[in-house]
Amino acid sequence: MVAYVVEDLQEVTLDVTGPGGRLAHYDLMSPFVWTEDDTYRMLLRVLPDPLGSNDPTGVIWGGESRDGRSFRMHDTPAITPVPGRDDAGGCEDPTVVRGEDGAYLVFYTGVDVARDQGALLVAKGPELTDLHQQRVILKAPEGEGNIKEATLAQGADGRFRLFYEYAKDNASRIGLAVGPTVEGPWTVVDDPFSIREDSWDNWHLSTGPIVQQDGRDPVMFYNGATIDARWRIGWVSFAPDFSRVTGRGLEPIILPPPAKSRDATDIAFAASCVIVGEAIWLYYSLEDKMLRRALVRSYF
């Protein structure tokens, strides 16, 4: 049976101009990292700490790095809330893919002005500094809510899969939609997998990054939690056409370290992966405010 083993943990830092550096007094979440040539690029959700009553729940910033650990952030954000639109209350959880025309597609969560509902949106542009809101991809049906945390992958059958988190019955679940291209149109299908009653992921589930390597089943490093929202990172693998689950780790591969303060949240939350040779660098957040990456290797 395959095993995914964490062999190293590293801090990820941000460097910005202005007082305080590193976006002082801001929480950092959902680091989506990818490579272009020899450059690591990042988009992430940034929000004030503490969050004021009129503050957006997130603004998406971008940056670059040569080593994948220290990122120089841009002077202005990539995506900001737009009054009167579906993201008026905040912009969260960026995921970046390239369209067939080479343009950047940024899937992200748009929070409404009342902070009651999140929908899945996509922004498109020739550069990350020139993005425009394109359209709403998915909105929650009646009885469900907060569609967010997009993960995209192409199956062996040529069709694209859009995994996402949604809320139902006071819990988070992972949903799935299928489309002919990375831009859809999307058709919602059955959930790809669910909670396990007697395990660490017995109440909440949320999407994480998918790694696809030749000769191996696609694997998602997903997020799971108990009813009191103690989030950990585990893995689940799928058939190459995403028709079924082929494996799932019994225990999480990443747990938060002991918190430094009593009011800290007990959360480790996966956001993206970068493949370097046979190594997987998994980027995640801790306590909804700090960025880390883990070196993960697979053993068969």
Summarize the topology.
Layout: E1 3-15, E2 26-36, E3 39-48, E4 59-65, E5 70-73, E6 90-98, E7 104-111, E8 118-127, E9 130-138, E10 145-154, E11 160-168, E12 171-179, E13 187-189, E14 204-206, E15 210-211, E16 219-225, E17 232-238, E18 245-248, E19 268-276, E20 279-286, E21 290-299
Parallel strand pairs: 1-5
Antiparallel strand pairs: 1-21, 2-3, 3-4, 4-5, 6-7, 7-8, 8-9, 10-11, 11-12, 12-13, 14-16, 15-16, 16-17, 17-18, 19-20, 20-21
> Which range best describes the helical content: under 10%, 10-25%, 25-40%, 40-55%, 55-70% or over 70%?
under 10%
Total domain count: 1
Beta-strand share of residues: over 45%
Within CATH, the superfamily carries the name Glycosyl hydrolase domain, family 43
Structure characterization notes:
This protein has 300 residues and is mainly β. It has one domain: Tachylectin-2, Chain A (5 Propeller). The protein has no helices and 21 strands. Strands 2-3-4-5-1-21-20-19 form an eight-stranded mixed β-sheet, with no helix packed on it.
